[in-house]
Design brief:
heterodimer, A: alpha+beta, six-stranded mixed sheet, 9 helices
Chain lengths: 421, 277
């Protein structure tokens, strides 16, 4: 198997400057002097940090000693948290910015798509923008001419081809932009989070196109925060963590590691410690979700149940209930589950040790990331006694329906399908 | 897996130079299309459209004729004053608008620079083409003007492309230099209009070089546009107006130096454009 991209000890440094406070200057004339000196210095040595700089400068390594190889035909998902260096890596790969040290060997023509509609001019018509954008992305006029009809059909803008794009709806604009990019012919395609555009229908089309492209044997590098998409599209993964490679290899392994690590940023260790006891006499000694004291829970297909158990001590007898709130990845509360409705009999729990355990049947969820909040409630007064101070991450891989069909590829994460069970 | 696989291409720190000029050629279509974009966008959503390209030089010329020719009564070396002024305005307007456009071109295309790779030299040079089109339109006006006055040039007119070339070289040099400075120091956005405005007065557009005192002329010639403007006048007036060798040599060498400095500075700072813009 031939290597398409080989990255060797790649590093990229940025200089960030912080402006010093103005009181560092004693007098106006002094500050003018320093300012003048600075300007003179900058003109003589542009782009180099000068000594009489009123700004303090700090080095920041966006990428540090990156090493990995990508084989021809691999679809590689690059994942990592914000600021992990994903975009910098793509920029270096696309030659937009030079690396500070290290090498990248590339085999084949590389085309990158870091933004949808780069260089679109609002005053130009759709037709003109296809040629402009195509040329900017590196297509020749001949190539664009050949693909022109295909692009127009894909974007569904036939009627508005000779209208300036500033009159387009934002959806049409984005569709046209993606259509041009989707018809790029190159051996290696670098894509940065461009799928989050257009309406549901069009997103589906984009994903389909991406799939088709990837089946054509081309190498793809794909940056996205949308893990289910990455999972379905890519076979290899690179996980970046603060500018270094955290893990490379099979996409499933890489995603699992990423989920573990990123979930841990909500709370490292056991979730017991993360309970805020809102009533003075309550303490929590044990808290578990799905038999693990972890902050991340994988919901496997066909098993949309969350078991919460909580034990501790309290000073007064109470009627207790557990309450879970389900949030979408956009942090919108989309469901409330409480034992109150499950337990028919009110049962007073004595002061001292208590232990509650409840199984919540979640609705059938689309593939994606959800969050869960847990409350310990006093049923009589309806006051929260204890609350998790972070949300548990639920990663749903899609729901397996009774007839075997897996429900996972709706265009918007967060939809709930009601089932009769 | 092959261990010693040959790679077609290597990105390496500080080694972007090697492919640069080849890339410039490879991306020539982008050059055409950017130039075409700037031209076709220029008069969009204007009522009189391309007529602006005719009106602007004509009105400027009229004002100059009134101020310098009629009120100040400056000499025009035996050429009708409108032609005398217009012959100078051709290269000056080309230089000033191309220089201003080129200097601001990187900033106004910052979205391209931070998202796509191509030799950055394409942007400022493509923006110069717009002014070249305006130049052609002005040139047509000049021909009409000369027909009106029934004033025809001699064989000297054949040297005109040479003078145009000099102004082109000077424009590219100054444009590239200021474009690259402008990326990091936006101060130059204020400096550039100032230079253009001032340049009009220190170049012999509305008047003749002969009114500059003899002993200062050598300094005056350091402005490369002086030689170009006098050259244009000389070529179009059939040698009636003066053009001395010293000024021509100075103009050519200053232009070439500017061009060289501009390109070198641009190339030196280009790598950092995407990071600092």
């Amino acid at each position: 198997m031939t290597i398409a991209i080989k990255v060797e000890n790649l590093s990229k440094k940025y200089i960030i400057s912080h402006e010093k406070k103005a009181q560092d200057y004693k007098t106006l004339s002094e500050s003018l002097m320093q300012g003048g000196q600075r300007i003179a210095n900058k003109i003589i040595h542009p782009f180099s940090p000068s000594e009489v700089d009123s700004q303090t400068q700090e080095e920041f390594w966006a990428l540090k000693d990156i090493n990995f190889e990508i084989n021809q035909g691999d679809k590689v998902g690059i994942i990592g948290r914000n600021g992990a260096g994903k975009s910098t890596l793509l920029k270096v790969l696309s030659r937009i910015t030079d690396p500070t040290s290290g090498k990248i060997h590339i085999n084949g023509r590389i085309a990158s798509l870091l933004e949808v509609g780069t260089g679109f001019h609002p005053e130009l018509t759709g037709r003109e923008n296809i040629y402009l954008n195509g040329a900017i992305l590196g297509m020749s006029r001949k190539e664009i001419k050949l693909k022109f009809d295909e692009i127009v059909a894909f974007a569904e803008v036939e009627k508005f081809l000779d209208t300036p794009v500033k009159r387009y709806s934002s959806g049409m604009y984005v569709r046209l932009a993606f259509a041009v990019a989707a018809h790029l012919e190159s051996e290696i395609l670098v894509i940065d989070e461009v799928l989050a555009v257009g309406d549901a229908e069009f997103q589906k089309k984009c994903l389909g196109k991406m799939d088709e492209v990837s089946k054509g044997g081309r190498t793809i590098l794909f940056v996205s925060h949308n893990l289910p998409t990455v999972k379905s599209l890519c076979n290899k993964g690179v996980y970046l963590e603060q500018g270094t490679v955290g893990e490379t290899g099979e996409i499933l392994n890489v995603i699992n590691l990423y989920q573990e690590v990123s979930g841990a940023t909500y709370a490292r260790g056991k979730i017991v410690k993360a309970f805020n006891c809102l009533s003075g006499d309550i303490s929590i000694s044990n808290a578990m979700v799905n038999n693990g004291e972890e902050a991340i829970v994988n919901i496997v297909s066909g098993q949309n149940k969350v078991e919460v158990s909580l034990s501790g001590e309290m000073g007064f007898p109470r009627e207790l209930s557990l309450e879970c709130r389900l949030y979408s990845s956009e942090d919108i509360c989309i469901g409330l589950f409480t034992t109150r409705y499950y337990n028919t009999s009110y049962k007073t729990i004595d002061a001292g040790f208590f232990s509650l355990s409840e199984r919540f049947n979640l609705p059938d969820l689309n593939a994606g990331v959800f969050f869960l909040d847990i409350y310990l409630m006093d049923m009589r007064t309806n006051i929260a006694l204890a609350q998790l101070d972070f949300k548990i991450t639920l990663i749903c891989e899609g729901t397996k329906m009774k007839n075997g069909w897996t429900f996972k590829n709706l265009q918007h994460n967060g939809f709930i399908v009601m089932s009769d069970s | 897996m092959e261990k010693n696989q040959e790679f077609q291409f290597t990105i390496e720190a500080g080694k972007s130079e090697r492919h640069y000029w080849a890339d410039l050629w490879r991306y020539r279509e982008l050059f055409y299309i950017l130039a075409w974009r700037d031209i076709s966008v220029r008069y969009k959503q204007t009522v009189i459209g391309v007529l602006w390209a005719v009106l602007r030089p004509l009105l400027t010329m009229m004002i100059f004729v009134v101020v310098f020719g009629k009120i100040a009564k400056l000499p025009s070396e035996g050429v009708p004053y409108p032609i005398f002024v217009f012959a100078a305005m051709l290269p000056w307007m080309f230089f000033s608008s191309a220089f201003a456009d080129a200097s601001n071109s990187l900033i106004s295309n910052s979205n391209l620079i931070s998202k796509v790779y191509f030799p950055r030299l394409i942007i400022p040079t493509a923006s110069v083409i717009v002014s070249a089109v305006d130049f052609l339109i002005s040139f047509a006006i000049l021909i009409a003007l000369m027909a009106w006055y029934n004033y025809w040039p001699g064989w000297q007119v054949l040297t005109l492309p040479g003078f145009l070339l000099i102004s082109f070289i000077a424009t590219i040099g100054a444009g590239l230099f200021f474009a690259s400075l402008n990326v990091k120091y936006r101060d130059f956005r204020f400096v550039i209009p100032f230079i253009v405005q001032l340049g009009l007065y220190i170049s012999p557009v509305g008047f003749s070089t002969t009114i500059v005192p003899e002993q200062y002329r050598i300094f005056y010639y350091l402005n490369p546009m002086v030689g170009v403007i006098d050259g244009f006048r000389w070529a179009l007036s059939g040698g009636t107006t003066a053009l001395n060798q010293t000024e021509l040599i100075i103009s050519v060498s200053v232009s070439l130096t500017m061009c060289l400095v501009g390109i070198l500075h641009f190339r030196k700072t280009e790598k950092l454009f995407a990071d600092v813009i």
